[in-house]
Amino acid sequence: MFETVLSNLMTLEVWAGLAVGVIGGMVVGAMPGLSGGMAIALLLPITYSMSPVAALVMLMAIYTSAMTGGSISAILLHTPGTPANAATAIEGYPLTKQGRGLEAVGMSMLSSGIGGLLSAIALLVIAPPLAMISLKFSEPESFLIAVFGLTVIGSLAGKSMLKGLLMGLMGLLLATMGIDNVTGVLRYTFGADAMMNGIQMVPALIGLFTVSVVMNNCEDYKNANKSLLEKSNATLGTKMLPTLSEVPRYIWNWLISSVIGIIVGILPGAGGNIGSWIAYDQAKKRSKHPEEFGHGSLDGLCACETGNNAVTGGSMIPLLTLSIPGSPNAAIILGGLLIQGLVPGSKLFTAQADITYSILIGFALSNILMVFVGMAIAKYVVHVTRIPNSILMPVIIPLALIGSYAINGSMFDVAVAVFFGALGYLMEKYDLSSPALILGLILGPTAERGLMLSLVMAKGDVLGYYFGRPICVGLMVLIVLSLLYPMLEKLKAHLRKAYK
Fold it and tell me: With contact defined as beta carbons under 8 Å apart, do 213 and 78 qualify?
């Protein structure tokens, strides 16, 4: 079979598809408002005339590369290309202001490649047994995964835990706007039809992370002709990758964040945004220097990008084995599989094993190629930090608003971006946590749907139902440990001081 797989991959069509997928995915991912899902859907009709291996390798390359491309704008412009890159902006942009933009982009590319490659290996080696885990996940587990994600708010709260919790609750409240997906009841729509679908994630992200930054820069009109680096009194560094002596520092981070991403990817509907936040939180809790997080930590950046890209391979596991997509992008790729006559299930790994393993090895290759393409691009894109704000800011705003409009072709989404931009500007003034608000907004729908449906499934015996599910018990233990961890660390530090 090895010779067949090799011959399937060594064709011009496959490598052309790989190149189009990687480069196209990175470009689309770096543009706010566009997503890998859009690119996959647009290219889906083209795959009718392609071989199964070339078609699926191209679609999967777009999926993983778009996630990586979104980190470039998050790091250099504080504009997450996709919701999965929101956590990246927290660490990447401060590094850019320190003149370490090239190093941040380099770490992002390397970590994304490692996360994606390890998830591809998991997909190749242990897909069937891991897929059985997803069968055991239902709405109660989805609710608890979302609650576990919400424990990250403690890491994002900044100086005031109370302010962080209030912002998280505000995000959860905003997430309830629109039609209740379970009962169909309208909530907080104020009679406006545009509000029925609730608040779209991308316009809200663009507002909080991009429009608010532009507003802050406009306020500083005295430095309008200065670039980001000049304002920070920094110079653009030349270092891109960690040295060989620094690599051991990141190995556990890469491995643990990859495992988190793969597990989150297996869960239907979880997605890269949850994977990146949980990986970020766990990295901060394990770090010897947690005070650096939020101010430009390479460890935090490494965790975010490894976690969100590991989700890509994880989401393919239930898709290929059980026909259950682990993310919206995986659902579109399912269409690509069916177009090629590939039906997910056991036959995919037996009767059609040569095609399947060719696709999976092609997916692994796309992650390797993505790192090299990203490195080549990084040397040029970092120079955006040398452009004076008087030129850069008027360019960013139209792009941000066009990106907001592109989601649904709605001016309401543009208004949402402007509203959240003003909100983010005020939050900055009063030292309130924008990431905590975004986290509540991201996890709110998952938590609400999981809770509502599990209450129906429990038939009145909620505690008995939850404690009767082993995975739920395990998740509840993780939630309690996550909440207790900061207190235990403080107690340990206090005891250490007392005995010195």
Answer: yes
